[in-house]
Amino acid sequence: MLAGELALAGVGVTVLERLPEPTGQSRAPGVYAGTLRYWDQRDLLRRFGDRLRVGAHGHFALLPGGLDLGVLDTPRAAALVPQATVEEVLLRWARDLGAVVRRGHEVTGLDAGPDGVELAVSGPDGPYALRASHVVGCDGGRSAVRDLAGFAFPGTPATVDVLLADVAGLAPEDVPLPRDPFPFLRTERGWVGLSVVAPGSVRLFACDFARPPVRGAGPPSFAEVAAAVRDLSGVDISAGTPLWVSRFGNTTRQVDALRRGRVLLAGDAAHVHPPFGGQGIGLGIADAVNLGWKLAARVRGWAPPDLLNSYDAERGPAAARVLALTRAQDALMQGGAGVASLRDFVADLAALPEANRRLAAEVTGLTLRHDVGEDGPLPGRLVPHRELTAPDGTPTTTSALLRRGRGVLVDLDGRHADAAAPWRDRVDTVAARGAVEGAPALLLRPDGHVAWAGAGSPERALRRWFGEPLTGPPLTDRTAPSRAVATEGAR
User: Fold this and answer.
1) How far apart are CA 218 and CA 471, in angstroms?
2) Is residue 469 part of a domain?
3) Any bridge partners for residue 155, and if so which?
4) CA–CA distance, 346 with 104 (Å, rounded to integer)
5) Predicted local confidence at residue 28, as pLDDT
6) What contacts 179, CB < 8 A, 6 or more positions away?
7) Where in the numbering of this chain does the FAD-binding domain appear (predicted)?
8) HSE of 10, CA atoms in CB hemisphere, 13 A
């Protein structure tokens, strides 16, 4: 996602991916509304097509009753889509925009200076050096970039060991678990869950509370997973064909900062947490969309002084909030005296309409609001999805206005046509008819978050987010910076 964002903004980007080929594995089975909105802003939903299975149900710690996501003000609350499909679509998009992807290339050294970063890389043809203006580590929970650059990664180690297996030859009805609404059984000894990630197979999870995590342990055998499922639920899955087996724990960590000079981190390289609730992929996508336009502005030379620092200021607290959310779910999933009663109590609360709405907004990412220095209900929020009409009668939406990855001044009252003219090389002005929470005009950042809304002048917000106004020829007419941004990992 980050490579595509940078390439969309006209920045040369090279992706270094350690794996020679995609694994085809899908740790994440789906995404929530916030991610779907970011993808819609870049017209990526069209690329997914019918491989996105849109739904309106979610969960919080797999509590009975689940969550009704249909109450949210968003066109798509959630969608099932395998992570392998996500990686395929985003990779093709980034390449179509000009990103260079090198598979089988691993970062082994890093030297960051005031003018750039030099990487030592091990590739299929041997070691080589690569120099870039900036490096972003997107290389997962065991990030080499994070370690080489000296980021601290405090947190808590795993206390549980969850086994999982994707199994062909079994249908959901072959695994008789209670469904309320998701297949899940919790006892005093542990729990077993089921999901459908791809047609023709099921994914089984098993957590034995008495089984301690083994640091550095590899994937379990299918026999181990089948035995755990049988011991905890009485269900025999041994007749199925294993497609993939793995394990995970509830390790929770977050870096002390997302930026050290010209080296930045995003996704699992910056924060890890138990994958209860499907928050991880959404957190990483949001990091990429927030960082992409800011880093591009720095590379292209128009960024205000503190713009790149705002990545840490905004995404650090956002990640901490998600980690708190997953910790809460983890506590409700695990063993211990009184947890069963607590689950029942929280489930009763979650069934209340207002509580359901709040939890639904939290897990889908729609409560996210950055401090952009402006008052009112809209600034800082992801712009609501609203239908608009262009002056020529063409229908459009707030999301569609962001397809070019630029800032957008949305003139809804016809009085702001020239307000962003001095920033025309980086901000589009769009006249439209429609209602967006009653605002006469909106200034949207390239990531879709509202920078300003009102009837007065947006000049202060324009300067804060888009730098000084144009005084010479548009940036598109100047010689674009040739510096590349190297990223590690493909997400």
Assistant:
1) 58
2) yes
3) 253
4) 47
5) 82
6) none
7) 1-324
8) 18
C-beta neighbour count of 240 within 10 angstroms: 21
Instruction: Give the Cα separation of 352 and 359 in Å (integer).
Output: 11
pLDDT-wise least confident of 173-187, 314-328, 450-464: 173-187
Q: How many domains does the chain have?
A: 3
Is 0.85 surpassed by the pTM of this model?
yes
Phi then psi dihedrals of residue 424, to 5 deg:
-65, -20
pLDDT score for 479: 38
- Last-in-domain residue among 180, 214, 248: 248
What is the pLDDT at residue 215? 78
User: Domain limits at 445?
Assistant: 387-477
pLDDT value of position 478: 38
Assign 484 a pLDDT band (cuts: 50, 70, 90): low
At 178, which CATH number? 3.30.70.2450
Tokens matching residue 199: 């047609």
- Dist. CA 162–CA 108, nearest whole Å: 31
Residue 432 in contact with residue 412, Cβ under 8 Å?
A: yes
Q: Answer yes or no: do 276 and 150 share one domain.
A: yes
Contact, 48 vs 81, CB < 8 A? yes
123 shares its domain with 185 = no
Place of tokens 């969608």: 79
The Cα 32–Cα 473 span in angstroms is 42
Helix or strand (DSSP H, E) at 39:
helix 33-41
26 HSE (CA, 13 A, CB side): 23
Q: Token pair for residue 453? A: 């809304």
Q: What is the Cα–Cα distance from 76 to 201, expressed in whole angstroms?
A: 25
CATH of the domain at 323: 3.50.50.60
Judgement on whether residues 148 and 106 belong to the same structural domain of the protein: yes
Residue 78 to residue 36: CA distance in whole angstroms: 8
Q: Are residues 120 and 174 in the same domain?
A: no
Question: Considering the chain, what percentage of its residues have pLDDT values greater than 90?
Answer: 88
Peptide bond into 178 cis (omega under 30): no
pLDDT at 474: 58
pLDDT band (50, 70, 90) for residue 458: very high
Q: Is residue 375 a part of any domain in this protein?
A: no
Residue in 82, 94, 92, 79 with CA at minimum distance from that of residue 37? 79
Q: How far is CA 215 from CA 8, 186, 335, in A?
A: 41, 25, 20
pLDDT in tens, 206-230: 999 998 898 777 899 999 999 999 9
The pLDDT of 165-172, averaged and rounded, is 95
Q: What type of residue is 305?
A: P
Mention every residue, 6+ apart, whose C-beta is less than 8 A from residue 354. Answer: none
Contact between 57 and 78 (Cβ < 8 Å): yes
